[in-house]
Specification:
CATH class: Alpha Beta
CATH architecture: 2-Layer Sandwich
Distance between the termini: 35 Å
Order of helices and strands: HEHEEEHEEEHH
CATH superfamily: 7,8-Dihydro-6-hydroxymethylpterin-pyrophosphokinase HPPK
Shape: globular
Number of helices: 5
Number of strands: 7
Largest sheet: 5 strands, antiparallel
Oligomer: single chain
Radius of gyration: 16 Å
Helix content: 25-40%
CATH topology: Alpha-Beta Plaits
Strand content: 15-25%
């Protein structure tokens, strides 16, 4: 994180558009997502939310299907501050990591933060596997099919979706 970002943010009160991925396969994901919206709304403005997508598990197959969604938010928090708030939200909602790619009550991923590219121990932006996962791309497509990032060259969420090879989404999307 550069000091110039912190200075500009504090001097101009800038806000950023960010995209958050939501996933859950334990408990009642719809209920957890609604609680999540309430908590996130305390530190960011929720601009829009995708439909809900049911997907097969990724990485570790012996677990229930996931429900996935995405949010577009506006925030005055820096990327790392937002990441920490999302982690606090997960903890408050009962997240426990039992194993990598394993079952969970909630998983919140900071996918994009404006056009920022960042690679640190804590955070990589854009999220490194966005373009490989239909359960991330389909919810983002609901929010903005033309969404792109400078690291993706001319690719958009919509154009990547048309060529994705490995599919995990099992059913048609559902409303909240």
């Amino acid at each position: 994180m550069s000091k110039s970002w912190d200075f500009a943010k504090s001097a101009l009160k800038l806000s950023a558009d960010a995209y958050i991925g939501l996933g859950a396969n334990l408990g009642n994901p719809r209920s957890t997502f609604k609680k999540c919206l309430s908590v996130i709304g305390q530190y960011a403005k929720i601009i829009s939310r995708s439909r809900l997508y049911r997907s097969e598990p990724y990485g570790y197959a012996d677990q229930p299907h996931f429900i996935n969604a995405a949010l577009q938010i506006s925030t005055d928090l820096s990327p790392l501050e937002l990441l920490y708030k999302l982690q606090e939200t997960e903890k408050a909602l009962g997240k426990e990591v039992l194993r990598k790619n394993g079952p969970r009550i909630i998983d919140l991923d900071l996918l994009l933060y404006d056009d920022l590219s960042l690679e640190s121990e804590e955070l990589t932006l854009p999220h490194p596997r966005i373009l490989d996962r239909d359960f991330v791309l389909l919810p983002l497509n609901d929010l903005n099919p033309e969404l792109s990032h400078p690291l993706w060259a001319t690719k958009t969420v919509k154009s990547v979706l048309s060529g994705i090879r490995e599919r995990f989404v099992a059913d048609n999307p559902e409303p909240w």
